[in-house]
Amino acid sequence: MSPDETIEKALEIIGEAVSTDPSDFEDHETWKFLGLGDLAASAAAADLKNAVGVDMKPEHFTTYPTVGAFKAFLRGDDSEGQITSNGTSTTQPQHPPPDIGPPDPWENIPKPKVPLTVTLQGSPTTCSKLLFLFPDGSGAGTSYSTLPPIAPSVCVVALNSPFLRQAQDFTCSVERMARLWLSEVKRLQPKGMKYVLGGWSAGGYYAYEVAKLLVAEGEVVERMILIDSPCRLEFEALPTQVVGELTRKGLMGSSGAKKAPEWLVQHFTSTVVSVEKYMPTPMLVSQAPKFVDFIWVREGLVEDVAKSGLEVDLSVKVTRFLLEPRGELKTEGWEKLLPGAQYGVEYMTGNHFQITQAPHSDDLGRLIKKIVAQE
Questions:
Q1: What CA–CA distance (Å, rounded) separates 48 from 55?
Q2: Which of 22, 127, 199, 201 could share a disulfide with 136, CB 3.0–4.6 Å?
Q3: At 348, phi and psi to the nearest 5?
Q4: What is the DSSP letter of 154?
Q5: For residues 304 and 227, is the Cβ–Cβ distance under 8 A?
Q6: Cα separation of 106 and 187, whole Å?
Q7: Which three-class secondary structure state does DSSP give residue 51?
């Protein structure tokens, strides 16, 4: 069997173990990200040994943690991406280049139908601290309007998606979306003030990418607040089929209405497509915010998925994250993107879609007040 045939057969076996078509594997993806747990790794190693004659052990999936490194190992070039005994990699992880768009990020982007920013509390010119909050998949920064007063000294600014009410035009990457917001964020921030950025769900990805843009320009991002935002290194994009199921069962929508408005579903679906292509790269320790705070919910959307009538694939980690009750999550992979920070973890009431709905929004406001009061 040639090396190429060995690789093809091996990926077929692993694909069966993680319920993924091997043609969808990307070289930069880790086995952990693809859902290959310890039991599945043991079974796949045994199958590989029998099927292709490779002396496989489960720990090979740790020694060669990415698809690309594993393929190199099967070819006999086992130096590529190997993890050494002290836990370091012999090469830098390979990521596809981010799709940042053209030099002018607004090229071929339609004029927004809503303002990009909405000042919800305080004034950027009189408050001593600004908090920028990026939207979840709905794209509506006004979801944060339910927050109770944070502090007289804190101005709360929410970001609206440029594609709100025109989701059919939302085809750009997470990185390009961040560039669309950058000038507006800089316009409102008083010169010399350190930035505080936050975001709920996909809003955490936007906040992270805007932070990278700011520090690249010499600005200081002092703090990030990540609100129930599953790290893209550890979690997949939510399958669009799950979005359809949640809509069908009336489980999606920040308004609490039984049926989510069509514009919200459209924007949420476009967000999912964008997030599916997103793979963030780490910040340097010298660039990362000094403080990174996590706010998680413990409740799932349903108490029992089997009894809910939802037809979903629970082998997808992010689907379980959204639907099932959870334990107490910690940094959950974000520490790899934001190294060296002081991490804080808080927990609030409600499920993922109830975060900005009363009475849970009061709990969110209480935690944000506690966080931003820290120096």
A1: 8
A2: 201
A3: -125, 170
A4: E
A5: no
A6: 17
A7: helix
Task: List per-residue pLDDT tens for the chain, 375 residues long.
Answer: 688 888 898 899 998 888 888 888 888 778 877 888 878 888 888 888 888 877 788 888 888 888 888 888 888 764 444 444 344 444 444 455 778 999 999 999 999 999 999 999 999 999 999 999 999 999 999 999 999 999 999 999 999 999 999 999 999 999 999 999 999 999 999 999 999 999 999 999 999 999 999 999 999 999 999 999 999 999 999 999 999 999 888 888 644 445 788 999 999 999 999 999 999 999 999 999 999 999 999 999 999 998 999 999 999 999 999 999 999 999 999 999 999 999 999 999 999 999 999 999 999 999 999 999 986
Task: Count how many Cα atoms sit within 13 Å of the Cα of residue 299 in the half-sphere of its side chain.
Answer: 12
- Does the N-terminal peptide bond of residue 124 adopt cis geometry, omega within 30 degrees of 0? no
| Integer angstrom CA distances of residue 223 from 132, 288, 337, 375 | 11, 9, 14, 10
Q: Give the whole-angstrom CA distance, residue 235 versus residue 77.
A: 29
Of 32, 255, 302, 17, nearest in space to 145 by CA: 255
Q: Which residues are within 8 A (CB) of 187 and not within 5 positions of it... i.e. 6 or more apart?
A: none
> Domains, the chain, ranges and CATH?
3-75 (1.10.1200.10), 117-372 (3.40.50.1820)
Scan for tokens 């849970």, then name that residue.
Answer: 360
What contacts 13, CB < 8 A, 6 or more positions away?
44, 47, 48, 51
Radius of gyration in angstroms for the set of CA atoms belonging to the chain, rounded to a whole number: 22
Q: How far apart are CA 327 and CA 22, in angstroms?
A: 32
- Encoded tokens for 173: 């990457």
pTM over 0.85: no
Q: Are strands 195-200 and 129-134 parallel, antiparallel or unpaired?
A: parallel
